[in-house]
Backbone:
């Protein structure tokens, strides 16, 4: 890639930052060139972001219908899945899935709530509120 | 608390090579980022379908995390001290102590918990690296140098503790590292060919079919089998591949451009002009990887019809080009064979 061809397409996901890539300068040698983003990167990053957003909004709908607990919504908001939340919180996966049941979630002890809140990086008071 | 004296932040293309080249430079040896990648033989290809993260297979264009940290010790004849911690408070106290001693400290962190990262980059990727070079006495913020960003940044202690002690795949466990001995200038004419041979061995002659050019061919087979009837899942899979190849910290084209820059530098240090020629070939291969990324992105955005078969063929072409390239590279660093009488 020539330095002049380094994409400067203003990738919205970079939030104004630019990254650096190696490209061929005018003297024919490779050097570090700043790039303001490539539409391809933007596409794939947004795809991953939207995949989690969609899971979160699906979960939110189910929470409102009384089919799931806010825990599931917060898990996807934190861009986690059950396996990762299990590793981050130290709670078994089957217990997490059980805590997705609204009735079980409502009876959750303050200690477990605190454990989830810490793993998800939110205040414990926010855990039972979705949306 | 004093900041580390004479430290200058410089932006790099990849986190680990950026951090390690900065540490070596800070300790008095002129050292570029591509040289850190090349000398530690960290560029490779790996497709590990049995390791899944959020349901997607592990695809990597480089050796596992810490390969650059470890791999530079032998050629530069120094040693890196690495420490991990069970309890976050121990890890933070140790970091404070090292900063008080005026040391530049490398840290492994999860990207998700770093408040200064752009929100769209904050995924649970645990193998990011950055440097700590001081602490602000007024509010306790750590002064960090993240090599993929343009400028040094600040981070509140709680967030940094969270990032250093995130759990999950490749959990950092608070890893910090610093040189225990000063790096020394290597004998380039021996160290560089040795490092290149290690890379060509990884690319061409591993016993496992998941690593090197065979890994690319295997990935091509798995792309070809993606269900056309389920565009959502197929798009997520190919998007994941492109993310691993092009996203933050890969230097673009899965490290191929950066390795080419290493070969150019190696050509003059070892007086082997053939390496310059090979660097030019690798840049062409890198451009081909970018074409693969472009075709994938166009399919994801429905600008082109979704054809996994076409992407698989692009990957097969890349596998055969890289096979020829690394074979030629391998030949160029071997001693000339003695002629039979």
Residues:
């Amino acid at each position: 890639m020539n330095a002049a061809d380094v994409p400067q397409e203003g990738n919205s996901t970079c939030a104004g930052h630019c990254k650096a890539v190696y490209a061929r300068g005018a003297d024919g040698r490779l050097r570090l060139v700043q790039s303001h983003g490539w539409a391809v990167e933007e596409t794939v990053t947004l795809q991953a972001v939207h995949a989690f957003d969609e899971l979160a909004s699906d979960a939110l709908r189910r929470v409102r219908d009384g089919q799931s607990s806010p825990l599931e919504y917060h898990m996807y908001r934190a861009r986690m899945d059950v396996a990762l939340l299990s590793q981050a919180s130290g709670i078994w996966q089957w217990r997490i899935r059980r805590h997705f049941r609204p009735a079980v979630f409502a009876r959750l002890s303050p200690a477990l709530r605190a454990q989830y809140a810490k793993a998800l990086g939110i205040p414990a008071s926010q855990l039972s509120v979705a949306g | 608390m004093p900041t580390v004296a004479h430290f200058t932040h410089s932006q790099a293309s990849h986190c680990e090579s950026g951090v390690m080249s900065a540490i070596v430079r800070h300790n008095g040896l002129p050292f570029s980022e591509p040289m850190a990648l090349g000398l530690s033989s960290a560029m490779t290809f790996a497709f590990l379908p049995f390791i899944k993260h959020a349901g997607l297979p592990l695809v990597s264009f480089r050796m596992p995390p810490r390969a650059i940290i470890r791999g530079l010790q032998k050629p530069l004849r120094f040693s890196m001290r690495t420490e991990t911690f069970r309890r976050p408070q121990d890890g933070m106290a140790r970091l404070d102590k090292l900063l008080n001693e005026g040391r530049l400290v490398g840290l492994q962190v999860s990207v998700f918990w770093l408040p200064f990262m752009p929100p769209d980059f904050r995924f649970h990727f645990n193998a990011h690296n950055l440097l700590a070079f001081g602490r602000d006495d007024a509010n306790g913020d750590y002064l960090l140098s993240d090599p993929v960003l343009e400028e040094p940044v600040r981070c509140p202690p709680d967030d940094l503790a969270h990032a250093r002690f995130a759990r999950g795949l490749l959990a950092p466990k608070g890893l910090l590292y610093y040189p225990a001995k000063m790096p020394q200038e290597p004998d380039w004419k021996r160290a560089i060919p040795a490092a290149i041979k290690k890379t060509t061995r990884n690319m061409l002659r591993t016993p496992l079919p998941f690593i090197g050019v065979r890994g690319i061919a295997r990935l091509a087979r798995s792309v070809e089998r993606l269900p056309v009837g389920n565009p959502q899942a197929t798009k997520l899979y190919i998007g994941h591949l492109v993310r691993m190849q092009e996203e933050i910290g890969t230097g673009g084209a899965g490290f191929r451009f950066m390795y080419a820059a290493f070969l150019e530098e190696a050509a003059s240090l070892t007086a082997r002009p053939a390496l310059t020629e090979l660097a030019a070939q690798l840049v062409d291969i890198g451009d081909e990887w970018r074409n693969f990324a472009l075709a994938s992105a166009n399919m994801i955005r429905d600008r082109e019809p979704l054809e996994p078969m076409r992407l698989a063929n692009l990957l097969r072409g890349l596998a055969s080009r890289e096979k020829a390239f690394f074979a030629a590279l391998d030949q160029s660093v071997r001693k000339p064979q003695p002629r039979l009488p």
